[in-house]
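Hey L., structure's done. Input below.
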Amino acid sequence: MQLRYSFRLYPDRGQRIALAKAFGCARVIFNDAVRAREDTRKAGTAFPKAGELSKTLITQAKLTEARSWLGEVSFVLQQSLRDTETAYRNFFASLKGTRKGPKLGPPRFKSRKDTRQSIRFTANARWNITDRGQLNLPKIGAVKVKWSRPLPTTPTSVTVIKDSAGRYFASFVIDTDPHTDAERMPNTDQTIGIDLGLTHFAVLSTGEKITSPRFLRRAEKKLKKAQRGLSRKQKGSKNREKARLEVARAHAKVTDARHEFHHQLSTRLISENQGIAVEDLSVTGLARTKLAKSVHDAGWSEFVNMLEYKAARYGRTFIKIGRFEPTSQTCSTCGVKDGPKPLDVREWTCAACGTVHDRDHNAALNVKTAAGLAVSACGASVRPGLVPAQREKTGSHGFPTKARAA
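Output:
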C-alpha cells in the first residue's frame, strides 16, 4: 500500500522566491489546461490530448514574450498538466458512479490568492536527498529538512506544500509492504468495540473512557482575539496579511494537536487489538445540528480513517457497523431492545434482566457484538466471522492526515 510521510521544510530566502515562482508557473499551466478544456466543451469539439496541450501550453508558450518566464522552472509544468488530466478523470468517474466517495465537480481555476499551494516532483524529476539530509530540488536547490523519523523505503515522488500558515512541507509517497509491517505489531487476540461521543471522545468495550481533549474549545478565546484583530485591518494592507497569518497559525496549532492525538490513540488501539469495531456515524448530518462545533472539534472521521488504514497496513481487522444499529437501546447482557432514550440519560436499567448500564459502555459492547467480535459463553462467535479491512491508498492532505502513521 502507499502512504505519505511529511516533514517540515525550512527554505532560505532565495529558495522561498524560487518556490513562489514554481507555485505560480504550475498554477498558470493548470488554469490554461482547464481553460482549453472549457473552450472545447463550449465549442462542442473533442478535448485536446495531453501531448497537444503540452506542446501548445508549455513548449510553444516558452518561446513567446508573454510566457517566457515559464522557462525559469523545471519539471513542475508537465506534472501540473498531469494533475489536470487526473482531476478530469476523477470528475468523469464521479459522474458515471465508478468513483467511491462524494460527488466531485469539474476542476476549477486556481487563484494566486490561494493560501495553500503545492508542486509535485516525480521520480524522473532529478530530485534527491543529499548526504547531509537536505532535499535537493531542480532549480530550487538543497532545502533544509527536519527529519522526525527515517523513511522506510525510497520515495516515488515528493510534493512540496506551502500551507495557509506560511509553513513548508515535503510530502513523500512511500510504497510499503503490509506483510513486513504486520510483523512489527505484537501478537494479540483481543478485540474491542468503540463508541465515539462528545462527553468522552471514545468509550471502549473494556470500560475505558478516553476524555475528549476539545482542542478547539480550549483555544477559542485566543482564536477570537486573533480574528477580531484581522477584521480591524484594512483590506489589502500588509498589516492585514500579518493578521491573517496569525489567525492561520492559531488554527494550525489546533489542527496539529488534534491530529497528533488521533494518531497516538489510533496507533495504540491498533497495536493492542486484533479486531476493532466502530459505528458508521453520520458526521455530515450531525454537523448540521446545534452540536456542529463540538462534532467538528472531535474529528471522528479523521480518527476512523486512521484506524481503517492502519488496520489494513498492520494486518488487523477493522469493521464498521451500520449507523442505524440500536446500540444505545439494546441491553448488552440479555439483548432486549429497551427503546430510544434522551441524550441526558447516561445510565439506565434493563427492564428485562435488571442490569444497570452505563449508556456509552453498553453501546461499545453492542458495537463489538454487532461487528461479530463478541464471544458467547460457550466460546462461539455470536456473529459471522471477521471481515478483513479494505486496503486503500492514503489520501493527500492539507496538513497531512496520514503523515505520521506509526
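The two ends are 15 Å apart (CA to CA). The chain is about 40% helix and 15% strand.

-- N.
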